[in-house]
Amino acid sequence: MKRMRFPIVVKRGSCVVKIYRDRKPTGTYYRVAYHLGGKRHRLHHNDLQKAIAEAEAKAAQLSRGDVDAVQITGRDRLVYGRALEAVKQFDLPLDAVAIDYSEARKLLHGVPLIDAVRFYTRHHDGGIRRKAVADAVDEMIAAKRARGVSDVYLRDLRYRLGVFKEAFNCDVRAIGPDDVANFFDRLKLSPRSYNNFLRTLRTFFGFGQRHGWLSKEADLLDRVEKRSEKRLPVDIFTSSELVGLLKNASPEATLCVALAAFAGLRSAEILRLDWTDIERRPGFIEVAAHKAKTATRRIVPVSGNLCHWLAIAPRDGARVWPHSKDGFFKAVRRAADNASIIWKQNALRHSFISYRLAEIQDVNRVSLEAGTSPQMIFRHYRELATPEQAQTWFSIVPIAAKNVVAMTTKGSMT
Fold first, then answer.
1. CB 194 within 8 A of CB 232
2. 11-61, pLDDT tens digit by residue?
3. pTM for this model (two decimals)
4. Tens of pLDDT along 337-387?
């Protein structure tokens, strides 16, 4: 076997790479040396054949002018080869893969890319079907309508979910917690309206999860917090203010005022009230589930003084208020203006609950009649009126002349 002489010289054209041998107590090493850009470069190997292969590769690269390749070490070439093999199945250039990875890591703010991919897979695979937000909203509203929820609730859903679907022209499963948080940040609403949006979207996302459009593990409201609602004092009318309203209201509006003041009906319930709802059960007003705000049917007793207002009320069709919603609110506000009374929103219903509670001292019974919870009554209506004030309130009756009101003691609801 021919003895090798060191340094071994490997030439390609005018390019020269040399291999030196170093003997040390720890073993024999081989240095591959070459010059590039005026600087000497050395690579170390403990195997002569690897050193020769390295030298031949460097010499060939130098002769071709492949400067970048020359600077790749043996370890770098190994890494490069593994990287090429890893992305080979995707038919993508290695630099494009590296750029995508870099951009993804920037967006993830330190979260490992594989964790983000697992999260995405959890929420988009496993049978999660594609469903456009707009279609999902329409389907939920149709399902609620089929269940017989009230028109008021349906209008609320159409409004709030309509705003949401305008903001998200995508599939339900494509929405993330940050997207929802940003949506709420853009809402310029009072705390109560903000919380109503929150409640509606919680219902919507639950509907999407049950129908397989959103992962059951997804919590899209994770970064949205309920806002604290400042409790405003409840306003009620005095008996003299109510007399002023009744005297100055149109004949049709007079009955609506009386229904709110003496039966506690909400404005929306009065607008949907038919005469048959009053006549079906003598002595009671039936508020059907589809006409009530809470979608729950209730029976409201007719007080002795309300009987008198019903007796003189004009009838022009099946509805108690036969005109438009806007016309209704304009009529009651016009009565307040004519009576020089400051109109208080919902104060007629608040007044009924307050005076009724003072009259019978029974929270549960009042809650049933008013269609609200005992907790709401305890929170807002206790100690707003005295029994004496209640007696005066439920004694307001009309006398023979049109729109003239007297306050005399008549039958009560007790």
1. no
2. 888 788 998 998 888 889 899 888 876 788 888 888 989 988 888 888 888
3. 0.51
4. 999 999 988 889 999 999 999 999 999 999 999 988 888 887 777 667 899
Distance CA 97, CA 151 (A): 54
Burial call 117-126: b when 16+ CB within 10 Å, e when fewer: eeeeeebbee
Looking only at the bridges linking them, the beta strands covering 298-301 and 284-287 are antiparallel
For the record, the structure tokens of 55 come out as 């030298």
Question: What is the identity of the amino acid at 13?
Answer: G
C-alpha 320, offset from chain centre: 37
- How many CB atoms are located within 10 Å of the residue 237 CB? 25
* Residue from 193, 257, 234, 164 nearest 380 by CA: 234
**Rounded to an integer, what distance in angstroms lies between the CA atom of residue 155 and that of residue 120?**
34
> Is omega for the bond preceding 7 within 30 degrees of 0, making it cis?
yes
User: Structure tokens of 151?
Assistant: 């028109």
Amino acid type, 141:
I
CA dist., res. 22 & res. 48, Å (int): 11
